[in-house]
Amino acid sequence: MKKKQQQHPSSGEDPWPHGAPVGGAPPCLGGCKRRIPLLPFLRFSLRDYGFCMATLLVFCLGSLFYQLSGGPPRFLLDLRQYLGNSTYLDDHGPPPSKVLPFPSQVVYNRVGKCGSRTVVLLLRILSEKHGFNLVTSDIHNKTRLTKNEQMELIKNVSTAEQPYLFTRHVHFLNFSRFGGDQPVYINIIRDPVSRFLSNYFFRRFGDWRGEQNHMIRTPSMRQEERYLDINECILENYPECSNPRLFYIIPYFCGQHPRCREPGEWALERAKMNVNENFLLVGILEELEDVLLLLERFLPHYFKGVLSIYKDPGQKRAPDLITDGWEPPRGCWELNSGPLEEQTAFLQP
Ligand SMILES: *[C@@H]1O[C@H](CO)[C@@H](O)[C@H](O)[C@H]1NC(C)=O
Ligand SMILES: *[C@@H]1O[C@H](CO)[C@@H](O)[C@H](O)[C@H]1NC(C)=O
Ligand SMILES: *[C@@H]1O[C@H](CO)[C@@H](O)[C@H](O)[C@H]1NC(C)=O
Ligand SMILES: *[C@@H]1O[C@H](CO)[C@@H](O)[C@H](O)[C@H]1NC(C)=O
Q1: Treating both helix axes as pointing N-terminal to C-terminal, what angle do 265-278 and 40-65 enclose, rounded to 10 degrees?
Q2: Which of 147, 152, 161 to mutate to test the pocket of ligand 3 (most atoms within 8 A of CB)?
Q3: Cβ–Cβ under 8 Å, residues 326 and 32
Q4: DSSP-assigned letter for residue 285
Q5: DSSP E strands: which ranges in 66-159?
Q6: Distance 249 CA to ligand 2 centre (A)
């Protein structure tokens, strides 16, 4: 890993209210001949983001093997024990006959614009195949809840028939605070630039550039804004492209406490602690196949066979704007080289 400046972008509303197309860059709107120089603010927040995300990932992987503090769910302890022993035995003898522990409560508090709709499509198939209870929510634009709403939601989810997998765009919920069993969490995050681009175009055009999507997603958006060139948006410091809170995903891991939405040491530390204690896995969208493979290995009762379903060409998927015949925005690709190259390397330890 390379040295990093440890700063965080400031402020933290949740700006990613919608579902997520997989794949990063949607088409540019006519203005991509120019290379996009990264403005200082963007460079900083993206790097910081890289730092935060990579830290989360590292802590998450670490959490498979170390219990640093507090009380992780039983399943994670069992899994760590299982992994600890099976690693040893794989190296020194026959594979262990011990069975993989099986959690009956899993929560995927999905981060918007990180491929979650593709994963939810897969989950629908898997829930029929493996007979678990997939609990979804119709609410896509509310990630923070009042105390009463938390209580009600947790009560609802906790009474769902087990084994269940609950998924919703929602900041981390502390089940044990309300007397529930703490479930096992999973999540997927992605390169912050791709996520930014994905959201930018998704707000304007939905998955496709069809008129209907315009009307559904952002009916009141003015035409000038809808067709605003992303380069101009960045270079001219439009609020949509200069607000560092756009990159803030920490509350998904930190929780519902108001301080979780104020970027800073407190929120970051709490997020890391939660990832360590409660998350089985925080995957990276850019390596989705590996993530699916890990899920298949660690949660076979939910994810067995997911990779072959995912790879099946006949399988319906959320549209992938890169590979589904759209011309990728040349300028946008350059965001990932130059100043962000280091971050990209950093994200793949
Ligand atoms: C490994 O397995 C042995 C039994 O085979 C058990 O006694 C021991 O507690 C396990 N150790 C860990 C770290 O899981
Ligand atoms: C969420 O969306 C619903 C309609 O789908 C709308 O009525 C509600 O005002 C939205 N809430 C927020 C916080 O945006
Ligand atoms: C909880 O479940 C009830 C009945 O199934 C439903 O009416 C209510 O909206 C749910 N509440 C939440 C927060 O999901
Ligand atoms: C969750 O709630 C429990 C019980 O109130 C508390 O001990 C723990 O610190 C909380 N964890 C987080 C991350 O809020």
Answers
A1: 30
A2: 152
A3: no
A4: G
A5: 105-108, 133-135
A6: 20
Phi, psi of 105 (to 5 degrees): -135, 115
* Pair of tokens at residue 237: 């410091």
Q: Indicate the residue type of 76.
A: L
Kindly give the distance from the C-alpha atom of residue 123 to the centroid of ligand 3, in angstroms, as a whole number: 21
Tokens of 256: 């519902």
Q: Which helix (H) or strand (E) holds 284?
A: strand 279-284
Could you report the per-residue pLDDT of 283-315, keeping only the tens digit for each? 888 888 899 999 999 999 999 999 999 888 776
Instruction: Give the span between the Cα atoms of 192 and 298, in whole angstroms.
Output: 27
Per residue in 96-111, pLDDT tens? 546 677 889 999 999 8
Q: Sorting pLDDT into bands at 50, 70 and 90, what band is 24?
A: very low
* 320 class by beta-carbon count within 10 Å (0-12 exposed, 13-18 middle, 19+ buried): middle
Q: Whose CA is nearest to atom 5 of ligand 3?
A: 156
- Answer for the pair 102, 310: CB distance below 8 angstroms, yes or no: no
Using an 8 Å Cβ cutoff, are 162 and 105 in contact? yes
d(CA 104, CA 160): 11
Q: How far apart are CA 22 and CA 109, in angstroms?
A: 17
What is the percent of the chain with per-residue pLDDT over 70, rounded to a whole number? 59
Sole residue written with tokens 């609990």: 135
Write down the pTM of the prediction. Answer: 0.66
Least reliable range by pLDDT among 39-43, 199-203, 281-285: 39-43
- The mean pLDDT of the chain is 71
Alpha carbon nearest to ligand 3 atom 3, residue: 156
> Look-up: residue for tokens 């998904």?
252
Mapped onto helix, strand or coil, the DSSP state of residue 253 is: helix
CA pair distance 214, 221, nearest whole angstrom: 9
pLDDT in tens, 79-92: 777 776 555 445 55
Q: Is 87 in the pocket of ligand 1 (CB under 6 A)?
A: no
Is residue 214 among the annotated active site residues?
no
152 lines ligand 3 (CB under 6 A): yes
